[in-house]
Write a structure and sequence with these properties.
It comes from Tagetes erecta. The protein contains 14 helices and 14 strands. The chain has 431 residues and is of the alpha+beta class. An 8-stranded mixed β-sheet has the order 1-2-10-7-12-5-4-3. A hairpin with a 2-residue loop joins strand 8 and strand 9. The chain is globular. The termini are far apart. It binds 2-oxoglutaric acid and fe (ii) ion. Fe (ii) ion (FE2) binds next to loops. Fe (ii) ion binds next to loops.
Length: 431
């Protein structure tokens, strides 16, 4: 089936393909008998995709060599949507491309220069995200967290209530899934949010200017459970345990965050901010040309709070800090916490939701992370700055909005830039 689709794609685009290539493809088609197994078909599909990409790159570079030195692929010169669709419909993900042995990345992954990391400044100390000992005295923990949330919007905690062995097994189960055969993973590949669980690549694949070097498994944990049939077997046991442990720590963190704002400790809980939990595991395979793409483009998280664990492949998650980027170092057993757009707005800008990104992985081993997003479960109510934080000297920075509408806006935009908090901003200069 996949093979047929690939061949028809090639034929439709045959005007781009030289005669000898068409002969090669015809021979390939003729070699296929009814006995070809689906795995063989799949391998062939992968080879065809690589072939197409290689050919297009070659063709493109050849045509433009005498005009420009820049190797950058522009959307104007090729039918991007067709190639994106082809990649999506192949269901092989980025890991599938890597498994097929590619040495150059398909051009749909070529990021515009502004999304690529600049060379690291020399002779300057590397900025890193603060690490907070969660077992310290409560008032000191509250103050350190308040301080981090008011500036960088990110911190890591160690000596917290989630056992390190549980972090290891959660990451291990996710890695096990992503490292299954392409044929196995394909059964779970789709983009329908309704089932509460989906394996796919690049959730904004059709909205973004360029794809990123990452695959993702997303499972909604609460308020509704996922359809467990849609969750890969090796993740079914660990996910409920993981969710429970993370939700417990989330409750503690939210009360600390409220305290830092001078609010009653259960204010965020009252507004159902602990109840809408989505667990998202990202797999960042090694990238043969990490200088041309990214793992995850710079973005802010839309929800209230995000908690992330990562494996030992560090130095790739970065947080925007002025004109520079601070590294979120890989610390075994640590949990990364960051403020989302909703919390920034609810805190009336006391806490900051800060842009972050993941660089493409130049390492030999895959980077695996698991993020749990905390969102309100009550979607039809109004959200906005806490009235306790608004006064004549500190007017509301944001207007109120219904969470439902807010999320719709988020998912129809590209995962890039910071447009949503600005969208709800009140122009206080007119008052
Ligand atoms: O993979 C990571 O470490 C970060 C993931 C992230 O920022 C996100 O999913 O929003
Ligand atoms: Fe994020």
């Amino acid at each position: 089936m996949y093979l047929t689709a690939s061949l028809s794609y090639i034929r439709q685009n045959s005007y781009k393909i030289q005669h000898n290539h068409l002969i090669f493809l015809t021979q390939l088609q003729n070699q296929l008998t009814k006995n070809t197994s689906s795995i063989q078909q799949l391998q062939l599909t992968i080879h065809i995709i690589i072939y197409i990409n290689h050919h297009h790159n070659h063709h493109h570079n050849h045509r433009h060599r005498h005009r420009t030195m820049a190797p950058v692929t522009t959307t104007a010169t090729y039918d991007r949507l067709t190639e994106v669709k082809q990649f999506d419909e192949s269901k092989i993900g980025v890991k599938g491309l890597v498994d097929s042995g590619i040495t150059t990345i398909p051009r749909i992954f070529h990021q515009p220069p502004e999304n690529l990391p600049a060379p690291k400044p020399k002779n300057r100390p590397r900025l890193t995200v603060p690490v907070i000992d969660f077992s310290g005295e409560r008032s000191s923990v509250v103050e350190q967290i308040r301080q981090s949330c008011s500036t960088l919007g990110f911190f890591q905690i160690v000596n917290h209530s989630v056992p390190v062995s549980m972090i290891d097994s959660a990451i291990g189960s996710m890695k096990e899934f992503f490292e299954q055969s392409t044929e196995y993973k394909m059964r779970y590949y789709h983009r329908e949010a309704g089932k509460g669980a989906a394996y796919s690549t690049n959730f904004d694949l059709y909205q973004s200017k360029a794809a990123s070097w990452r695959d993702t498994l997303q499972v909604r944990m609460s308020p509704l459970e996922p359809d467990w049939e849609a969750v890969p077997e090796m993740c079914r046991k660990v996910l409920p345990e993981w969710d429970k442990a993370v939700a417990g720590l989330g409750e503690e963190l939210m009360s600390i965050l409220c305290e830092g704002l001078g609010l009653k400790p259960d204010r965020l809980k009252e507004l159902s901010c602990l109840e809408g939990r989505v667990c998202v595991s990202h797999y960042y395979p090694p990238c043969p040309q990490p200088e041309l793409t990214v793992g995850l483009t710079s973005h802010t998280d839309p929800g209230v709070l995000t908690m992330v664990v990562q494996n030992e492949v560090g130095g790739l998650l970065q947080v925007k800090c002025g004109d520079e980027w601070a590294d979120v170092e890989a610390i075994h057993g640590a949990i990364v916490v960051n403020v989302g757009d909703l919390l920034q707005m609810m805190s009336n800008d006391e806490y900051k939701s800060v842009q972050h990104r993941v660089l493409a992985n130049p390492d030999e081993g895959a980077r695996v992370s698991i993020a749990v997003f905390f969102n309100p479960s009550v979607r039809d109510k109004l959200y906005g700055p806490f009235p306790e934080l608004v006064s004549t000297t500190k007017p509301a920075v944001y207007r109120e909005f219904v969470y439902e509408e807010y999320m719709r806006r988020f998912f129809t935009k590209e995962l890039d830039g910071k447009t949503l908090t600005n969208f709800y901003k009140i122009d206080n200069t007119k008052a």
